[in-house]
Amino acid sequence: MTGTSTAGPGPTGTSTAGPGPTGTSTAGPSTAGTTATMGTVNRETTASADHDAATTAPRATRRPRPGVRSGALGPRIVTAAAELLDETGNEAAVTLRAIARRAEVSAPAIYGHYPDVQSIFLVVVQEAFTELDGALRAAARGNGTAGDTGRSTDGASPAAAGDSRQLAAARLRAVCAAYLDFATRRPQRYRLMFGGLWTPNRAIESSTVSHEDVQALGQDALAVFVSALQACVQTGASTSSDTSADAVGLWLALHGLAHQRVVTAAFPWPADIEQRVITAQAHLTTS
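RESULT FIELD:
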């Protein structure tokens, strides 16, 4: 993305190994943040907790949204902020007072759900990434079953192997097209996700937004690219030797194309520019 130094999907000014917002360093698994424990813990309570932890299967759960309480008002606040961003395209215009007016609540009422405006922006970005992830997965499913493209072609007939390669490549191209379509349909939300409207570094420094919150952004969406590219390799549709790195490279190329289409709308783009970018970055062997 523009002004970005990244190793993976991440907004402006980011150095990442996967999708993450502006100014975030995400070269690997999150190590940001430490937990400080204070006070004396009862021995019996500790033993009981240890037993419960040992007998309970671990669950993959997301970090709770900062400061959010249950109820209908929380979603109304987030929706109001998202609508203001879409309408104005200006982060500075989305103040707590403006959000309160749009949500038809008092400004102090917001503090019962979110501690500051930055934590509201975080939820808007999280929900945008969820929407993007859903679009990418739907695109991948629309070109055949996962089993068709995830199976090795060793021992298959030439016709079957060829069909499998074509199917895997089609699924990857569909995922890429869905990404570009999202950027076109949701321009302000896309800018919020990848820099320009929201600066996570500033949010981390000035609010309850944590490095962990930021580093988790976009990882699910990146995983769709990786999976689709791995299927291409397994079926012989791609010669990629590092699907994780090449998926990041593909994302960067798509992001650059999406951005340039916005800022240079009158440029005479080649009709097949998308396919050229995808073929090159994914090392596809089939058109």
